[in-house]
Write a structure and sequence with these properties.
single chain, mainly alpha
């Protein structure tokens, strides 16, 4: 019994036609593509054919169209895998998408498994088992409908067949409304010629919309940066930033926000008149000159005193004493 087989096993080299032939002959179906079995119902019945009676066929939905309905079928299949202790992983998310390669690989594995457990019993009746399924009765009616035309064809094969021209005349005279209704469905040559031009216009409009959206996002990001800068605590009270915020948050489109912002800016600048830079520079220069005049260099004064004659030094001392005396007033 093969539950896990390698990717290089001969089972994965079985072609699509052989897989389809095996499915249709085992279950008496009329599948034309392997991916038509993506609903999971076919897998359930194939396993039921390999192990008759183990699959609760009344829970299988052959009429599954949506993914959630298909997932229910795969849940039934997984429950049977657990009963049989089959460790094969079912990639449900890929199978329900109807991808041809994924469905082919899983069906190749199913064929390999069913062939390994087949005991040669041919008493399985797929139509009878499918009648209890949801949508299974319709599959049975399809099968019977496909078999009935073949029997009718055999019984009427020796009847005289009318000529091709006579059949054409009968069809045209029997139902002329069909011929009239069929004409408008064919596109005219003018419409076919105009279609590429419309396609080009649609493409150009899409490109223009993309460009405009990018430009909008670009300028919006710039305005957002300016708004964040204006909300900085250090400059939030500045009249310049207040005027910018006035323009940013304006809701009216009458153009008055610019004039109001200019008025706010002028009023704010008049309230805080700064000191002229020229006056500040001149004041600094005068203070520095005053400091230089009052600065006394001890070394220079000591050198000058040492170069004076004794008589001159004595006279300077006497001048100092006399200047401090009350008699010299």
């Amino acid at each position: 019994m093969a539950t896990n087989i390698g990717i290089m096993d001969a089972a994965y080299f079985v072609g699509r036609s052989e897989i389809l032939s095996w499915i249709n002959s085992t279950l008496q179906l009329n599948l034309s593509k392997v991916e038509e079995a993506c609903t999971g119902a076919v897998h359930c019945q194939l396993l039921d054919a390999a192990h008759p009676g183990i699959v609760p066929m009344h829970k299988v939905n052959f009429d599954a169209k949506n993914e959630y309905e298909m997932i229910q079928n795969y849940k039934v299949l997984q429950d049977v895998f657990n009963k049989l202790k089959i460790t094969k992983h079912i990639e449900v998310s890929k199978l329900v998408k109807g991808r041809p390669l994924d469905n082919l690989e899983f069906m190749q594995w199913m064929k390999r498994y069913c062939d390994s457990v087949n005991s040669g019993q041919n008493s399985y009746n797929p139509l009878e088992r499918r009648e209890v399924c949801k949508g299974g009765g319709r599959e049975v009616s399809k099968k019977s409908a496909h078999s009935q035309p073949s029997n009718k064809g055999g019984s009427t094969s020796h009847r005289p067949q009318p000529s091709h021209a006579a059949r054409r005349n009968d069809v045209s005279t029997a139902n002329p409304a069909n011929q009239v209704a069929a004409k408008p469905t064919r596109p005219s040559a003018a419409a076919a010629a105009v279609a590429p031009a419309y396609d080009q216009q649609i493409t150009e409009l899409k490109l223009s919309i993309d460009s405009l959206e990018k430009e909008r996002d670009f300028y919006f990001a710039k305005l957002r940066d300016i708004e964040i800068l204006c909300q900085t605590p250090e400059v939030e009270d500045s009249p310049v930033f207040a005027a910018i915020q006035k323009i940013l948050y304006a809701t009216d489109d009458n153009g008055s926000e610019l004039a109001e912002a200019q008025a706010m800016l002028t009023a704010g600048l008049q309230e805080a008149v700064p000191l002229s830079p020229i006056a500040e520079v001149s004041e600094e220069k005068s203070s520095e000159t005053h400091k230089r005049k009052n600065f006394a260099n001890p070394e220079v004064d000591a050198a000058g005193v040492s170069n004076l004659s004794p008589r001159r030094r004595l006279s300077d001392v006497s001048n100092i004493h006399h200047s401090g005396s009350s008699l010299m007033t």
